Amino acid sequence: MDLRSKAVLKRPDYSMHRALYKSMGYSDYDLERPLIGIANSWNRITPGHYNLNHVSEYVKQGIFQAGGTPIEFGVIAPCDGIAQAHIGMHFILPSRDLIANDVEMMVEAHQLDAVVLLGSCDKIVPGMLMAAARLDIPAILVVGGPMEGGCMFDERAADTTSLTEGLGMLRNGKIDEATYLKLENHAAPTCGSCSFLGTANTMCCVAEAIGMCLPGSATIPAMQANRLRSAQAAGRQIVYLVEQGITARAIINEKGIENAIRVSTAIGGSTNVALHIPAIGYEADWKVTMDRFEELCRTTPYIAKMNPAAAPNVPDFHAAGGVPAVMKEILPLLHGDAMTVTGKSVAENVAGAVVHDRGIIKPLSAPWQAGGGIAVLRGNLAPDSAITKPAAIKPEMHTFTGAARCFDYEEAAIEAILEGKVEAGNVVVIRYEGPKGGPGMREMYTAMKLLYGRGLALTTAVVTDGRFSGTNNGCFVGHISPEAAEGGPLAIVQDGDTITIDIPTRGLHLHVSDEEIQTRLASWQPPEPKFKRGYLSLYARLAESADKGAIIKNKA
To answer: With bands split at pLDDT 50, 70 and 90, how would you rate the model's confidence at 1?
Structure first.
């Protein structure tokens, strides 16, 4: 094996390096083996990462068993849920690039031979995959797994988002405070990534679909023993990847990325994949355009339905067969010869997969719906693109026309909804929440959940240059590009303007003449930056638009 770590551990020139390792207890024996980084995003603030220290111990066992030496280091991992609906959400999407940079810095500074990426949640998983593609060394992702569903609420197992829906019900007099407190205490019974198919679990499934996770591992519940056995197997497998010289870009390439897009839409995954997959592709030197994204989504049937589109949660999906079962069903649409971290092809990996519950995973010949779960819209309100999720929208809402009710930031929209100032027939416009304008492209999760709680989910819509949580339902369109802060048409929408969302024709239209749009744009002035110092000030200047994945360019 050609181990790059050995170049910086040769005696006598690099004896100082060896001494530094030895100061922590490493031996000559340890330093002769492949040095395998473990990028561990464990903390005690993010439930999806709370178990990763335990998971890491089993990864280390596997590395030792296979003849490697684990070198563990920490990575930040902010919690989307705790950051919701306040200033903290500005920092969540920008953390993705910091995570990618952090992993790159640690691995390159110490010339580690490979890296095991431990993460579970929304921006951590894509950030780690971006780092793997950028580094192009042997890499494997190990996730912490989803939490179990909670107490019964609103005719399904509760999850953390049930609290926001419940708040709307509480304010509307549909439930009492005792019921709401019970929900708070029993909605999240275990640690793990949130039990629904939000961005966290979607991106774990995407990682498996690309080929960067061991088959079947993305959805093993956090508290199951098999989560630990899978982690140990991943530890052994990373040493195998080093021995075979299989690096990340042998897996994260056109075939793996296109497989990931198809799987994400086949399971009705989070709209945030339209940000993260292009960003991963950018690091792998493969451009993912919105035209190609839409083509793959439109030609991939929606075959696996779970929360927020149906009652089953991700642990139920896992029991039904999980990602391998879905990939076997849609194998005719996939690149079956794509390489994976097993050293085998996708087709070989899923050959033995079985669907155990046809109430969750349908056959390719009889899907839940013919078109995919995610769609790209365009029109005079979104010249470059916008993203929606037909899988989470009732069919009768796939075409919606209403009067604009405009807000220049999320908090104003939330206040209006709670005060009953948003009515049936309104299209709630929330702007200046894009990558630059937010900055950080906050999730408009709370507004959507409050509309649901107040009984307006089927009579209103939300249109924004921000984004959405994977758990949102109702009628919603996000990622509008160009964003309002860059002078996109969303900036000049006025209260009372008519807007039409037409998912079947992939349209998003403002019923204002082209001449009037240009007149309004000519008098528009960009808003003052919301952050004038710190990382968000820098991010607002550097981030690309949503249709490009909100990336920060790092190539000459």
So the answer is: confident
Pairing mode of beta strands 498-502, 152-153: unpaired
CA quadruple 321, 324, 328, 332: dihedral positive or negative?
A: positive
Block residue for tokens 């416009």: 429
* C-alpha neighbours within 13 Å on the C-beta side of residue 299: 11
- pLDDT band per the 50, 70, 90 thresholds, residue 376: very high
**CATH superfamily assigned to domain 375-548:** IlvD/EDD C-terminal domain-like (3.50.30.80)
For residue 353, give the amino acid letter: A
Closest CA to 130 of 106, 109, 111, 102: 102
Catalytic residue among 162, 469, 481, 545: 469
Is the Cα dihedral 273, 279, 283, 286 positive or negative? Answer: positive
Give the count of beta carbons closer than 10 Å to the beta carbon of residue 511. Answer: 12
Residue-wise pLDDT for 180-196, tens only, equals 999 999 999 999 999 99
Clarify whether 469 is annotated catalytic. yes
Q: What one-letter code names the amino acid at 204?
A: C
CA angle at 110 for the pair 109 and 115, rounded to the nearest 5° = 105
What is the percent of the chain where pLDDT is above 90? 94
Same fold, 33-148+190-350 and 375-548: no
